[in-house]
Specification:
Helices cover about 25% and strands about 25% of the residues. By secondary structure, it is α/β, with parallel strands linked by helices.
Length: about 350
């Protein structure tokens, strides 16, 4: 039941980020109903920009044929626009069932300063996980799913291609496995320092070691996928974690793929990986993800922060390349002043 004795003043509006056209976003004020039975009012502390997927939405590149499958859990509107999209949100429960009040929670929710969701949509953040770091929960979940799909074994030789947010996260998690070899592969030599911070070996694609048992591809480039096929050993597996959206990709299937009997499998976080689907739920996977964030080593993925009022401009800067980031954090005002933000366009 809702705890009315400690219920905060009723907020009737919220401020949310909407994509309203190709390369155009704005903050909108919208009505916020009171929470119903089994629902919670969450005040957002931080949200994270999942650059790869959110820029696909920002640039109106979601293919119509998979628009339904690629919708975020609490998305409003539809692709290409207007659409309220995002899924890395951390906040505090201000109203709702008594046993949830005051808890810090992660939710797969778009960028919005307050929102109402069923409590089943919330993942409690452990007390020893900082709220800012907890925005990475959704990305850790993606990495977990890819690793479950890959199924690495003792002594395996593994390469991860693409040292972005997802690739770096996969490599960090794999660094705890008893592998005989792990390489993080990227064309940018500056990523070497990032790999060293993660405790993972780094290689340029030209120098990467072949005969891998598993190659996990995260670069979202056809060149990266082609190199993944070259690095996989005979009968090896390539796990494709990239989303190419509306881009056509040419893959040299007449070379290593066919001659050496390779396999390419997709990993997409919307569904639990087949190897664990019958024994793990999405909620189980999220709980595992947030528990792993007790490790302060994940802070390396948080590469900048901006206030909510600047979010439209930040997304455009990420899109045009004037702002470089792994996970850029959006900070929310601690008071109701956030409800006084006027809509603004990028």
């Amino acid at each position: 039941m809702t705890n009315s004795a400690t219920q905060p003043p009723q907020h009737t509006t919220a401020t949310a980020y909407w994509t309203v056209g190709p390369e155009k976003g704005e903050l909108r004020r919208e009505d916020l109903p009171a929470p119903g039975p089994g629902e919670a009012l969450v005040r957002t502390l931080f949200s994270g920009i999942s650059k790869g997927t959110e820029l696909v939405v920002h640039n109106a590149r979601v293919p119509e044929c998979v628009a339904r499958e690629m919708a975020a859990p609490n998305q409003e509107g539809s692709f290409p626009s207007p659409v309220k999209f995002g899924y890395l949100s951390v906040g505090v429960v201000e109203d709702g069932p008594a046993d949830w009040l005051g808890k810090t929670v992660f939710c797969l929710y778009p960028h919005q300063d307050r929102y109402i969701v069923p409590v089943e949509s919330l993942t409690e953040v452990p007390e020893d996980v900082p709220a800012r770091r907890a925005v990475l929960t959704g990305t850790v979940e993606t990495a977990i799913n890819g690793i479950w799909e890959a199924g690495p074994r003792l002594g395996d030789r593994v390469a991860v291609i693409g040292a972005g947010l997802v690739g770096g996260m996969v490599a960090k998690l794999l660094s705890t496995f008893p592998l005989s070899r792990l390489q993080l592969v990227d064309i940018d030599p500056a990523k070497r320092a990032f790999a060293e911070t993660l405790g993972v070996g780094f290689s340029h694609p030209d120098d990467a070691l072949p005969d891998c048992d598993i190659v996990i591809h995260c670069s979202a480039s056809q060149e990266g996928l082609a190199r993944a096929l070259q690095l996989a050993g005979d009968d090896g597996d390539v796990i494709e974690m990239s989303w190419y959206a509306d881009r056509n990709v040419t893959v040299p299937l007449g070379e290593d793929f066919h001659a050496r009997r390779l396999s390419i499998r997709a990993s997409q976080v919307g569904v639990v990986a087949r190897a664990r689907r019958h024994r793990r739920t999405n909620a189980d996977r999220l709980q595992l993800a947030v528990s792993l964030l007790r490790d302060p080593g994940f802070d390396v993925f948080l590469t900048g922060a901006s206030p909510l009022k600047d979010l439209p401009g930040v997304v455009q800067q990420l899109s045009d390349g004037t702002l470089d980031a792994l996970c850029h954090v959006i900070e929310y005002p601690a008071t109701t002043e956030s409800h006084e933000v006027n809509p603004c366009s990028a």
